[in-house]
Amino acid sequence: MPQPSKHQFEKLSYNVIGACIDVQRQLGLHCMEVDYQRALALALPKFGVEFQREVKIPITYDDVVVTRRRVDFVCWDKTDRLLLETKAASTIKPEDPEQCLLYVTKANEKLVLLVNFGEKPLRARRFVHTPAGAQEASDNAV
Fold first, then answer.
1. CB atoms < 10 A from the CB of 82, how many?
2. Domains delineated in the chain
3. Percent of the chain residues topping a pLDDT of 70
4. How many beta carbons lie within 10 A of that of residue 2, not counting itself?
5. pLDDT value at position 133?
6. Closest among 74, 70, 118 to 93, alpha carbons compared
7. Contact 6, 108 (CB under 8 A)
8. Residue 137: its pLDDT value, please?
9. Contacts of 122 by beta carbon, 8 Å cutoff, 6+ apart
């Protein structure tokens, strides 16, 4: 019997990561970030993912937009959406996860994927927004 999904966006993130793996498999390790992004624009629809590139995401303070940051991709399917930040480096820099955490917290996004095409196997990290009330509810359910 299959286990239920832990999060409703698992199918979407699975498809996005699948597209990323396909791109890395075909292009290899030593392309520039923009090359991977161009290939992803071709791969994502093959995996049933709609997207928009280079979207400005509002960053808020006290519910007021104080700036906007550009994210590489906003991806969605029929039920959910996620942000995709891409890198093409031998290792992730400390500021890369910080950037994703900014999107999850201050832009109030549910899920951000950080994918590094410069590592083999492909390195994908998930940053999930868990509101304080939801975390307390899940802690109490244990």
1. 23
2. 10-141 (3.40.1350)
3. 85
4. 4
5. 56
6. 118
7. no
8. 35
9. 17, 20, 21, 24, 115, 116
Per DSSP, what are the bridge partners of residue 59? 67
What is the edge-to-edge ordering of all strands in the sheet holding 123-128?
50-61, 64-76, 81-87, 111-116, 123-128
Query: Nearest CA to 19 among 3, 35, 41, 34?
Result: 41
Parallel/antiparallel/unpaired status of strands 81-87 and 111-116: parallel
Q: Which string of DSSP letters, residue by residue, matches 31-89?
A: S-HHHHHHHHHHHHHHTT-EEEEEEEEEEEETTEEEEEEEEEEEEE-SS-EEEEEEE-S
* CA-to-CA separations, 26 to 22, 42, 78, 81, 137, in angstroms, rounded: 6, 12, 28, 26, 43
Question: At 113, which helix (H) or strand (E)?
Answer: strand 111-116
Inter-residue contact 54 to 80 (CB < 8 Å): no
**pTM of the complete model:** 0.84
* C-alpha–C-alpha distance, residues 115 and 85, integer Å: 6
What is the Cα–Cα distance from 83 to 136, expressed in whole angstroms? 25
